[in-house]
Every structure is written in C-alpha cells, then in structure tokens.
Amino acid sequence: LPAPHQIIEDMNKSIFGHKVTSKRSLVYHGWVTISSTLVGFGIGALLGILLAVGIVYIPTLNRSVMPWVIASQTIPILAIAPMIIVVLGAIGLTGLLPKAVISAYLCFFPVTIGMVKGLRSPDPIHLDLMKTYCANNTQTFSKLRWPASTPFLFASFKVSIAISLVGAIVGELPAGSRAGLGARLLIGSYYGQTIQIWSALISASLLAGTLVYLMTLLERLTLRNMGGRFF
C-alpha cells in the first residue's frame, strides 16, 4: 500500500509535470472519461425524463414499463458492460459511444424515479384548480407539474452525474481503452503500479465531487430564478 505522500507526488507529476495532451497526463485521461460521462448523462437524463412523463400521463406505461425499469437495475453492470461493447462494436460503434451508453444505462433510473415522484407531487387541490382554469394537459405540465418536479429532478441529477462517471470508468475496463481513468486503473493493475491505481481512484473521486458540486450550483441558480428560497 503506497504512502499518502507518494500518491500526492504521483498526482502532482501526472497533472502538472506533463502537457495536458500527453497520455501520461491525468488531465488527459480525466478529460476522456468526463467526455463519456457527460454524453452518457445527457442521454440518460433525457431518456429518464421522457419515460417519467410517459409513466405519469399514460397509465398503460405505468403498469407495463415501470416494472421493467426497476428490473433493469438488478443486472450487475460488470456483467452487461462487455455485452454492450461487443454488440455496439459489431455494428461499427466504438470509442466514446459504448461507454456513454453504459453511463446512460446507469443514470436513467434515478432520473426516471425522481421525475415520476416530482411530477406526481402537486397537491390534488392544485390540480383541481388548474382544471377550473380550463387548463389542458400541456398547460398543467408547464405551469404546475414541471416546476413542482424541479427539486426532485436536480436531486436525481446529482445522483446520476456521479453514477455516470462510474459507468464511464466501468465501460473503459472491458473495452481495452488506452485512455481514460479506467484505462489508468487497468494498466496499473497489469503492471502492479499501486500508486498509479490510487492516483486514478482519487482523481475519479475528486472529479465526481466536482460534478456534483457544479450540479448543486446549477440547482441553486435555477431554483432562485424560479423564486425558490434557500436557508
């Protein structure tokens, strides 16, 4: 087990001792991983929101799709990740996209569950009030359900963005990637470089914390513009 100062020295050398375009730079590998993370998060978040809207407004989807959404998360990601990479590789899709799909697979579930809860959160009296105003479903959604679901949405986003990073790293392992934090972990394990492994792990943790913090700032800005208050 490496000493803490050895890990710090390795991280300092990997971050500041090489150009950001060098494959020895942690910044380079971090950027490769975060690219897959953000693409996967975008796909998963959009899919989760669309599924949630369908589940809330279409009873048939609630009964038929929701159980499958829950069941999808019982499959270990380490088991399904190689399958996704092989299937997409067979049709010529390699590089960033397979890793983004794995990230999306992990992150769509929290968004779906959070948005379903949020879209159903308005009080019945408020829904009845919208009916007295002769509001249609679109108006009720935009004026009541969507604003009410925003806090739930951002709570889901903060969970999903971190899970997306995990998905991107997991996707780099079976893909045999030569770049990314997952690749650094894999190479370090091959050659017994425990310091490199710990540097990549700590970098991934810091990156996840930064993404969650940025999402928190975006949440506060959005809710403040919507008239929300923070204590």
What descriptors fit this protein?
about 230 residues; mainly alpha; MetI-like fold
Blueprint of the fold:
Blueprint: H1 4-16, H2 26-57, H3 59-64, H4 66-72, H5 77-90, H6 96-119, H7 124-132, H8 137-172, H9 181-190, H10 194-225
Helix pairs in contact: 1-10, 2-6, 2-8, 2-9, 5-6, 6-8, 8-10, 9-10
Protein name: ABC transmembrane type-1 domain-containing protein
Organism: marine metagenome
Domain ABC transmembrane type-1: 26-219
Task: Profile the largest sheet.
Answer: none
Distance between the termini: 43 Å
CATH superfamily: MetI-like
- Uncertain regions: pLDDT < 50 for 5+ in a row? none
What would you call the structural class? Answer: mainly alpha
The CATH architecture would be Orthogonal Bundle
Strand content: under 5%
CATH class bucket: Mainly Alpha
The DSSP helix count reads 10
Q: Characterize the overall form.
A: elongated
Q: Can you count the beta strands?
A: 0
GO biological process, one term: transmembrane transport
Subcellular location: Cell membrane
Keywords: Cell membrane, Membrane, Transmembrane, Transmembrane helix, Transport
Transmembrane segments: 31-58, 65-91, 152-175, 195-218
Please characterize this protein's 3D structure:
- The protein is 79% helix and 0% strand.
- With 231 residues, it is mainly alpha-helical.
- The mean pLDDT is 87.
Quick overview of this protein structure:
With 231 residues, the protein is mainly α.
